């Protein structure tokens, strides 16, 4: 039977409207990641806006949640696009385990997107560069055309490579999941990322789910900002986040703040 082609929808983002934990599908409540406090009393996350941003302390479960969502969206939990298998060997991910008990509601499910993980960026970029070169060499062998070695993400610096990658890959209709995209971005590059995010948002056909520690990214206008606390997700303003409060105190008196902090 011929595979049915999935056509782009004319509806606007968000496409993924809700994810929730089916407790009956949990194989072992005491096993990781189901033993995390965020999952102890059920888990239910709705999406009302095209951009959803999740904040919280390290170890709270942000990355695990994103990995689980990525898996049910059709991405490899290690990062990449649809149909792309992880090239990072030995990477510990728990999203695949979580996704087995996650359920999703789509309106509708979209056929494209990307899951960006900072720690696997270079492995994915290397894979894409080599794939592009191989494809062009094959084409050149048939047509005689000289290969154009693009996109060549690895010729950039770390932060520039991130931005080039985002510009190249985050244009089509789809769902885009970013796990701490600021990890290699200077403040100026974070502003570039925000401009890209605005273009994606204004297009009407990109849904973004992002985890970040960067107050500048948390302040994106119109986004749903959620704090992952010990026992659940709750709406929060940028000014209420611990990240913003710490940075505000630092900016008010950098030397005094650092001296007081390291002496505690």
Automatic annotation (TrEMBL):
**Top-level EC class:** hydrolase
Membrane topology classification: Peripheral membrane protein
Q: Name one Pfam family in it.
A: AAA_23
EC number, as in UniProt:
3.6.3.33
Q: Which keywords fit this entry according to its UniProt record?
A: ATP-binding, Cell membrane, Hydrolase, Ion transport, Iron, Iron transport, Membrane, Nucleotide-binding, Transport
Q: Which SMART domains match?
A: AAA (SM00382)
The compartments listed are: Cell membrane
Q: What are its GO biological-process terms?
A: double-strand break repair; iron ion transport
Against InterPro entries, the record matches this protein to: AAA+_ATPase, ATPase_AAA_core, P-loop_NTPase, Rad50/SbcC_AAA, Siderophore_ABC-ATPase
What positions does the domain AAA+ ATPase occupy? 48-232
Q: Name one GO molecular function term.
A: ATP binding
Give the record's GO CC terms.
Answer: plasma membrane
User: Protein name, please?
Assistant: Vitamin B12 import ATP-binding protein BtuD
């Amino acid at each position: 039977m011929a595979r049915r082609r999935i056509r782009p929808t004319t509806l606007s983002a968000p496409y993924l409207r809700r994810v929730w934990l089916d407790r009956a599908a949990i194989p072992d409540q005491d096993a990781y990641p189901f033993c995390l406090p965020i999952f102890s009393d059920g888990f239910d996350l709705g999406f009302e806006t095209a951009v959803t941003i999740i904040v919280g302390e390290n170890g709270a479960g942000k990355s695990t949640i994103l990995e689980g969502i990525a898996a049910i969206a059709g991405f490899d939990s290690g990062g990449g696009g649809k149909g792309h298998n992880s090239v990072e060997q030995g990477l510990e991910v728990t999203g695949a385990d979580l996704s087995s008990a996650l359920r999703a509601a789509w309106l509708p499910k979209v056929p494209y997107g990307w899951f960006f993980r900072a720690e696997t960026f270079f492995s994915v970029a290397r894979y894409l560069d080599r794939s592009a070169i191989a494809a062009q060499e094959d084409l050149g062998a048939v047509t005689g055309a000289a290969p154009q070695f693009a996109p060549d993400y690895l010729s950039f610096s770390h932060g520039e490579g991130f931005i080039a990658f985002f510009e190249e890959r985050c244009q089509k209709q789809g769902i885009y999941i970013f796990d701490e995209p600021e990890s290699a971005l200077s403040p100026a590059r974070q502003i570039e990322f925000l401009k890209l995010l605005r273009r994606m948002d204004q297009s009407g056909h990109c849904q973004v789910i992002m985890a970040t520690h960067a107050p500048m990214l948390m302040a994106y206008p119109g986004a749903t900002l959620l704090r992952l606390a010990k026992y659940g997700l709750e709406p929060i303003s940028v000014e209420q986040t611990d990240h913003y409060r710490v940075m505000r105190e630092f900016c008010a008196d950098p030397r005094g703040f650092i001296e007081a902090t390291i002496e505690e």
